[in-house]
Specification:
Order of helices and strands: HHHHH
Helix content: over 70%
Number of strands: 0
Distance between the termini: 19 Å
Length: 101
Amino acid sequence: FFFFFFFLRFGSEITKMSLEGITSLAEFGAKQCELERTSGKSSCPAGVIYALQHFIKVIFQMVLSVNVDGDLVQSLSEALFSLICCDQASYTALVNELIGM
């Protein structure tokens, strides 16, 4: 979880900009998935999902286990929401893992 510590190491401004970048990438991925679905394909492009799987785990863990600066709450929630929209299966697996603890 290198990125988890990366977010904690730098100031809130750098973290916020990083989260905004992840949000943009996840929104792009969600749009690509929607385009695939409307064209009759049953799944998202594998590269999109693969690229974002790591970030959903890191941001999910940040939301649950770290006291974050109040300035980051909106950026964290936007990033997590966008990632959930892009990869619901990974989010469901994380929630089921949490419930199983």
